[in-house]
Amino acid sequence: MNTPTLMVRERSRQNCRIQRSRQQGWNIDRLLQSVRRLATVVISGLFLIQPAHGETLRAAGGGNIVALLHPFSSLPQGVINPHAMIHDMLFYVSIDGTLEQGLALRAEPTSDTTWRINLRPNVRYSNGRPFTAAAVVKTIEYLKSEAAGRYVISAETRSIKSVRAVDDLTLEIETFVPDVLLPRRFGTILMPEPWLYEELGPDAFSQAPIGTGSYVVEDWRLESQRPYLVANPDSWRAPVEFDVVDIRIVKDAPSQVQALMSGLIDVGYNFGVVEIDALKAQDFRIVTKPGGQVISLALANRDPESPFADQRVRQALNYAVDKQAIADIIMMGTTEPAGQPGLPGMTGYNPDIRPYPYDPERARVLLAEAGYESGLEFRAEVLITGVLEAPTMYQKVAQDLAAVGVAMELNPLQGQEWIRKYFTGDWGKADAISATWNAASYWDVIRAIEIFSCKKTGAFFCAPDLMPTIDATHGMFDADERSRTLQDLSQSMHDLAPSLFLVRIVDVIAASNRLGELPFRHKQLAVDKLRLAR
User: Fold this and answer.
1) What's phi and psi for 61, nearest 5 deg?
2) Can you tell me whether residue 117 is helix, strand or coil?
3) Cβ atoms within 10 A of the Cβ of 465, count?
4) What is the C-alpha separation between 518 and 371, in angstroms, rounded?
5) Distance of alpha carbon 534 from alpha carbon 397, whole angstroms
6) pLDDT score at 522
7) For the stretch 87-96, what's the b/e string if a residue is b when 16 or more beta carbons lie within 10 angstroms of its beta carbon?
8) 171: closest CA among 101, 224, 114, 124?
9) What is the DSSP letter of 302?
10) Beta partners for residue 92, in sequence order
11) What would be the CATH architecture of the domain defined by 88-198?
């Protein structure tokens, strides 16, 4: 290993030791000794080689770091995600549906409502505290508390009745009802250092988080939105090459393209498809990966006076829109039309279901049968951030619907207003709202199906006859039986058409040739495994 890399890793070790001292009550003399040792290493290194840096990954991320500081405030999303570098989860779900080891090595049901989970040995938090079953117990008990109820991730523990440490590396979990998805739920829960979290409180802990992951935060740099992470050399998954990760939060695709072309970043994601050809022309490597979601317009059936209470109307809208044109032209062939909750590779994906074909005449017939021969009008409120091409898609949808006599008034929403309406079910004057069939976290279609069911808080679509089957899938431990049942539910959702299905969402990632092959852990870039091109 070269001298600059050794120096950066020594700096990282000193950062971790200083963090440990704050937790363990070391006195000021010990801190000064650490600083003096670090200074000695740096000064000595300056005589050996310049500049004193290990390898730095310059990456572009999305979102707002201030809003995403808390480890339980949202699902770990995005290809470049600081939380996925700082913290670990018990398990990870690969995009072929495989449950992969994380902080846990295995999970086995010992009865319909009990699980035994074996943890990875010799894992420590970056402040030196051992990661044990007691840490998991403390985290889960917190997430089940009233204090954590405001955080999105707390919902992932709703089926857990009790959790106890059998020994340092063994957990026993009891659920209220059978829950075959429990290990996958743990694939959404980060495991920060729970004793320090309790001592400091959520806000202070989020400013200086402690995890078991490959990196520690040296500076969030909140004013400039430039998180700066350094290697945690004592991590069980210490980085193989990159000792520093310098992240720029880039607000739009053109700025990200400019940053990539000017050499300010090595890798980014959330590029628009229109940028792909330009990036390829400059010899950047493009990777497209399934996003685990289907973009759609949710059609509410809760109001019996709404035209969308009639299944024929909902199906008519699906026949009226040319989804293949959206995939081929607007999305430039990077994706495919959708007609069911999941994607290939997901548990419950039904390969026999075909998307609704473009058939305007069939749409007119169904509208006439439902009593709307003269057409109808409705208001759709759509999120205009996220999928860059979404506004163009919705314009195309409006154009195709107009051709069969359906007038769609488009009302764009910003993020917070859309979130409020989506989660409360209070749509106001809207008849439809943009929504995704999102099964990405579990890579299992039941998550998406439940969103479009009576089970969702503030449900906008409800088919009571399906609920016994939906609930029963959580207790099906026979994989083949469960897969068949979920495929049948996918067929039902296709036929009921609770949404105007559009296309599968894809993640577009671009990287410079400075980087080698891009490894992934679920949807995140596995920076700890990333290497330079050889």
Assistant:
1) -120, 175
2) strand
3) 9
4) 54
5) 46
6) 87
7) bbbbbbbebe
8) 114
9) S
10) 100
11) 3-Layer(aba) Sandwich (3.40)
Report the pLDDT value the prediction gives residue 16, as an integer from 0 to 100.
54
186-203 pLDDT, tens digit each: 999 999 999 999 999 999
Q: What is the pLDDT of residues 414-464, one digit of tens each?
A: 777 887 888 787 888 889 999 999 999 999 999 999 999 999 888 989 999
- How is residue 234 written in tokens? 């004592």
Instruction: In whole angstroms, give the CA distance from residue 107 to residue 117.
Output: 4
Comparing CA positions, the residue from 480, 449, 444 lying closest to residue 466 is 449
CB 502 within 8 A of CB 338: yes
Confidence of residue 224 (pLDDT cuts 50, 70, 90): confident
Q: Classify burial at 478, counting beta carbons within 10 Å of its beta carbon; exposed 0-12, middle 13-18, buried 19 or more.
A: exposed
- Classified as helix, coil or strand, 367 is helix
Tokens of 206: 């989020």
What's the full length of the chain, in residues? 534
pLDDT (mean) for 466-486: 97
Asked whether the CA dihedral 120, 125, 131, 136 is positive or negative, the reply is negative
CA pair distance 344, 340, nearest whole angstrom = 11
The superfamily CATH assigns to domain 59-65+213-284+513-529 is: Periplasmic binding protein-like II (3.40.190.10)
The CATH class of the 291-507 domain is alpha beta
What are the two backbone dihedrals, phi and then psi, of residue 201, each rounded to the nearest 5 degrees?
A: 90, 160
Using DSSP's 3-state secondary structure scheme, residue 128 falls into coil
Quote the pLDDT of residue 12.
54
Phi and psi angles of residue 222, each rounded to the nearest 5 degrees, phi first: -65, -35
Would you give the DSSP letter of residue 280? Answer: H
Q: Over the chain, what is the mean pLDDT?
A: 88
Distance in angstroms between the alpha carbons of the first and the last residue of the chain: 16
Distance, in Å, from the CA atom of 133 to the CA atom of 118, rounded to the nearest integer, reads: 9
Give Cα 147 distance to the centre of its chain. Answer: 24
User: Which pLDDT tens digit goes with each residue over 394-415?
Assistant: 999 999 999 999 999 999 887 7
Residue 175 has phi, psi (to 5 degrees) of -110, 155
Phi-psi region of 371 (alpha: psi -120 to 50; beta: other; left: phi over 0): left
Burial letters for 322-342: b for 16+ Cβ neighbours within 10 Å, e otherwise?
Answer: bbeebbbebbeebbbbbbbbb
pTM (2 d.p.)? 0.85
Are 232 and 215 a contacting pair, CB within 8 Å? yes
Spatial distance between the Cα atoms of 109 and 470, rounded to a whole number of angstroms? 21
**pLDDT surpasses 90 at 146:** yes
**Is the pLDDT assigned to residue 37 strictly greater than 60?**
no
Lookup: tokens for 229: 């992470």
Report pLDDT for 112: 96
